[in-house]
Amino acid sequence: MSNIYAPFASAAEAAGDRPFITEGDSVRLRYSDLDAATATYAAALTLAGATPGDRIVVQIEKSVENVLLYLGALRAGLVYVPLNTAYTAAELDYFIGDAEPAIVVCDPAKAEAIGPVSGKAVLLTLGADGCGTLADGLMPVPFATVVRGSDDLAAILYTSGTTGRSKGAMLSHGNLASNALVLKDHWRWQDGDVLIHALPIYHVHGLFVAIHGALLNGSTMLFHKSFDADAVLADFARATILMGVPTFYVRLAAHPGLTREACSPMRLFISGSAPLLEATFTEFAEKSGKSILERYGMTEAGMITSNPYEGERVAGTVGYALPGVSVRVSDEQGREVAHGTPGVLEMKGPNLFKGYWHNPDKTAEEHRDDGYFVTGDIAIMAEDGRVSIVGRAKDLIIAGGFNVYPKEIELAIDAVPGIGESAVIGVPHPDLGEAVVAIATRNVGSNIDEDNVLATIADKLARFKQPRRVIFVDALPRNAMGKVQKASLRETHAGMFAR
Ligand code: MLC
Ligand code: AMP
Fold first, then answer.
1. Quick one: which of 52, 160, 234, 276 is 20 to 30 A from 379 by CA?
2. Which atom of ligand 2 approaches the CA of 203 most closely?
3. Residue 450 falls within a domain, yes or no?
């Protein structure tokens, strides 16, 4: 039985009636009830017509029911396709068309907008309050978890691309299980661990790294709908682990409640999904007495490197390749470069995805002949194998841990009447790490302004992708080859959000 649900079920049995998820002071689900609860979802999805291997596209708010739906989908052998709740119906149209799901689950409030784009899929609803047509169909029935091979798909997670089109990364049961088991050991998950879960659950970080870790260890998760520094700090008294994006730590470090005393029950602070500034690491360490453990990963492979649990956690580095994972740094032709020299980070391992859904060309393009995956991140490896991420070969902006590919935003802005052309860049931002900014030109005779542009793209792009500023210029700077010089634009606007 290679269904990744199997080890979760064993851990749940061992955990007995320990709380699995709590919200505020109320226990929402105990491990002893997990099996029956997930069975109802697996049975309902099967009854709705989904068969093993079918995709289920899910865009709902974070909730206990959302976790049960995910686990139920795994048990039914379905391929779970979670989507950012910020995506608009226009964006969903693409994902549903590409994934060709048997079932779409959305928030009841969005059913009217999503109905027309749900194609042949059965549309079910599930709200953050646990109500909806999916909930109405739940029945307490036993369900035998569907047997899956370790190469069978468990999930497809969409990740945007340099062309502006999102690609679905196919992750197998084996991919997810290998990464979860390695992290359980590496981060020394132990008896009594309690996880503060304040991340969204439609990305690798909150869905796999956090939930799988807690489940495998039979640990309680203190569920927060979103990140609120006051509420998270208050939970330090009854928790041991926090996983977050750097913005969490920027906000916590600025909070007057971050003291050594408040942090003393906490065993581990983990950061990832975007670069953690050395200044944040240092300020946090000074105030809390704890060193943040920074790790590095991506949708296509889950976690790839991590700072050590016992050894030194060095600010500005992402540590060493995880056990079983191989990493190397190469030049553009794929020739390994010397230690200390920057190059593209490449990796291989049991956590590496099965390719992009319906996109063998893109899959081939991003792999070397010997199977290494080209991450698109620029890294330096020290003599002892310690990795530092020093830049990106891919044109990517990471705002508050969410990835934004400039091409997609540029296409949307260029389509606005009156716009000549645009270039979208990431500008350093004290809270989000980077903020999306557009530099644009007007067509002759047009008097289009920033507000017009933002209003026109508002229903086309998720809010987090929308530029924080649109700056008009007479012409975009170009090099001799005619290529827009984004580095020069980034330099010109670097201080835009400086405090
Ligand atoms: C919210 N907004 C954002 C944003 N988050 N804008 C840009 N980037 C973001 N990340 C918008 C809101 O819609 C709102 O719009 C405005 O910004 C202010 O919101 P806020 O209240 O300040 O935001 P908040 O709710 O506090 O959210 C910030 C955040 C959140 C950082 C806590 O974005 C978050 O939880 N990020 C985590 C992302 C994540 O899980 N990444 C993992 C990817 S997996 P308006 O309309 O009010 O202006 C991965 C692999 C790996 O990368 O290695 O882990
Ligand atoms: P995603 O496509 O959402 O999975 O994002 C993966 C990308 O996030 C990686 O390719 C990196 O660019 C970035 N990333 C993740 N963790 C780190 C980190 N610790 N430091 C720097 N960049 C990171």
1. 160
2. 3
3. yes
